[in-house]
Amino acid sequence: MSSLRVSRTLRAGAGIVFAFLYMPLLALIAFSVNDSSSTVWEGFSLRWYEELWNDPQILAATANSLTIAFTSTCLSTIIGTLAAYALWKRRSRMLMSTVYLSLVTPEIVMGVALLALYQAVFRFMDIRLGMHTVILAHVSFCISYVVLVVLARLRTMDGTLEEAALDLGATEFQAFYRVTLPGLTPAIAAAALLAFSTSFDDYVITSLVAGVDSETLPMLIYAKARRAISPSVNALCAVIVVVIGSLVLAAQRLQGR
Prior knowledge:
Elements: H1 2-32, H2 47-53, H3 56-90, H4 93-104, H5 107-125, H6 131-154, H7 160-167, H8 172-201, H9 204-209, H10 217-227, H11 231-255
């Protein structure tokens, strides 16, 4: 009887925690299909999604965000996978500490540091801030996520398989490409999805290193929210929550394979 009570208590506690986490998101989705422009429910309507689709500023910001996220994901996935493989072979605590340092560094500090670096370097190259600086900034913090996800998969693999391939006449590249890489595919896909969602959602670093022609979706949402919360912003945020949530769930499923 006591174990049954404990089980019910744990379930109730878990229910409260999940309600605390997801009730705001559910309210956001509900207001995005509200026919009223206020928080008073007046009936179901998709008018705000239609307004969202017909807003050229939002479409342009979405295109910028997708371009930045896709490019930075490709670059960070390639670099991070190779870095994870090197750390797996090297097993250096100092190098691993640098990966963790990138994760625990506050975003505002990282953004200011990148901005200072860009200003110092680009002053001599006559280059201005723009999409390229945002992509480089996103690659810099997405690499750490890729390294940790791929490295976790590598640590569960048998390193003697590569040695056997080398003994049978394969080159180091062939051993990596034909033996290790196929086993890393789920982890690489999960890391790429995580990097994409992180890049697409970033605001602090992006706002510091973006140029006048590289406004992203989070920057536009924040600018609109400072003036007034429009129902079209609710619709936009609801779409982002569903898309990013789907990517995170897909990444967790792939990582568990």
